[in-house]
Design goal:
Layout lengths: L1 E6 L2 E6 L6 H7 L19 E4 L2 E4 L12 E3 L1 H4 L7 H8 L9 H14 L5 H7 L11 H13 L6 H7 L1
Parallel strand pairs: 1-5
Antiparallel strand pairs: 1-2, 3-4, 3-5
Helix pairs in contact: 3-6
Bound molecules: FE2/S2 (inorganic) cluster (2 copies).
């Protein structure tokens, strides 16, 4: 089926099989390997990407459902290598260890901060409920999200947010 969408600001027009899921398409066809394939059943959140501004699980979304959509992956958040405040905070607070869950956590928490720029710990933990992390125990991830929220512009490059402060 013919589809047309934007991925990280780039127009993508393609003919895809109706059974292809978004995370597989991004990784195999577009070379965007930031989103990870974990459970493939919607449980772990490692595959999370943004579709039309909301975090979705890429293993549950068929590409053909996304015709006309705007997709952003973790690669699109920092196209020039400048980390967002959230990414920087995850680094600073040791919110990532093996890193397998991290792209999904970044996309889910970027969505959270866009809809609730000043979340409390309870809101952050609720927002993380769809993202499994086997390494960190979540404490450091929560600290990082709180730190990013305190800086305001969660999806701007870290230096830009700092200079805005
Ligand atoms: S791979 Fe999609 S939720 Fe686990
Ligand atoms: S950092 Fe390893 S699963 Fe989260």
């Amino acid at each position: 089926m013919e589809i047309s969408m934007k991925v990280n600001g780039r127009a993508v027009d393609d003919d895809v099989e109706p059974t292809v899921v978004l995370v597989d398409y991004l990784r195999s066809e577009l070379g965007l390997t930031g989103a990870k394939v974990g459970c493939e059943t919607g449980q772990c959140g490692a595959c999370a990407v943004s579709v039309d501004g909301r975090a979705v699980k890429g293993c549950l979304a068929l590409v053909v459902q996304l015709d006309g959509g705007i997709v952003e992956t973790v690669e699109g958040l920092a196209p020039d290598g400048a980390l967002t405040p959230l990414q920087q905070a995850l680094h600073d607070e040791h919110g990532t260890q093996c890193g397998f869950c991290t792209p999904g956590v970044v996309m889910a928490m970027t969505d959270l901060l866009a809809t609730d720029p000043d979340p409390g710990e309870a809101e952050i933990r609720a927002g993380l409920s769809g993202n499994l992390c086997r390494c960190t125990g979540y404490q450091s991830i929560v600290r990082a999200v709180l730190a990013a929220a305190s800086q305001g512009t969660a999806d701007a490059p870290a230096e830009e947010a700092a200079s805005d402060a």
